[in-house]
Prior knowledge:
Elements: H1 8-23, H2 34-43, H3 47-54, E1 58-62, H4 69-80, E2 82-86, H5 87-97, H6 100-109, H7 117-129, E3 136-140, H8 146-153, E4 160-165, H9 168-176, E5 178-181, E6 187-189, E7 208-209, H10 216-230, H11 232-239, E8 244-248, H12 256-269
Parallel strand pairs: 1-3, 1-4, 2-3, 4-8
Antiparallel strand pairs: 5-6, 5-7
Amino acid sequence: MVLAHGTDSYYKAIILETLVKETSSSSVNPTEPTVNIFRDATKNLTSLVKVELLVMVNLIIFGAPGSGKGTYAARLKEKLNVEVIATGDIFREMIKEDTPLGRKVKAYVEKGLLVPDDITLEVLKENLAKIPRGKGFILDGYPRTLKQAKALDGIAKIDAIIHLVVPDWIIIERLSSRRVCENCGAIYNLLFLKPKKDMICDKCGGSLYQRSDDTPEVIKRRIEVYEKQTQPLLEYYKEKRVPFVEARCEKLETPPEVVVQEIMNGLKRLGLA
Ligand code: ADP
């Protein structure tokens, strides 16, 4: 049976598994409410295991193209013990490998259009299944349509939405000066987030390149698609009463760490960090 990531049953399964492993106890009644099992179980567990069980958090990061989703998600990954699933990165990797599916995906990505939902959902499921049990995630670039959001409801429980609010002029400036490491995917900006050596990644020494969809015409299309198809999803999650953490960026030169701290503060207020 596949358990929805982050749901009550999911936690119960982890607790049972951990209990058997840690204490060789088989005296747990699976029909007992999770809260009771957790209370009894944690009496016998080391504090390290307790912490691991408690900090799992599942997040979605929303924002227009160029709002900084990938940049912030990479930094939050370190702080929150989560995996990042970025559908755009996964598609770019598929295109680079030139697989039959990659060739199909390329036609959409290069025009700034959305990849069909059935392909995207398969890619998401495959990548969610790779996350080690007990570890949470940040989704960057998924969901982008209502259909994708509804499909996600059956797969995982979302603890909060991070919403990046960035004016259009900053987005345009950032995207046209964005460069990405072809080896590790690290994101740079020739204006305010420059690599130490020209066009070389600080982290791995890989070469930097400009994404083929970071051209003025395709950027315009991606922003339109975001406003029409993805922005309405914010309403969907508000109606579902999923908590929001909003982070604003009003200046081009604001360092990523400042925005990341704002997000962390919001998550702390919600008891999620
Ligand atoms: P950005 O948010 O800057 O536009 P991404 O790297 O998230 O960039 O996405 C790049 C492209 O990959 C999108 O323009 C789209 O073609 C495709 N893509 C990524 N995620 C999805 C998704 N969830 N559904 C459909 N297409 C997607």
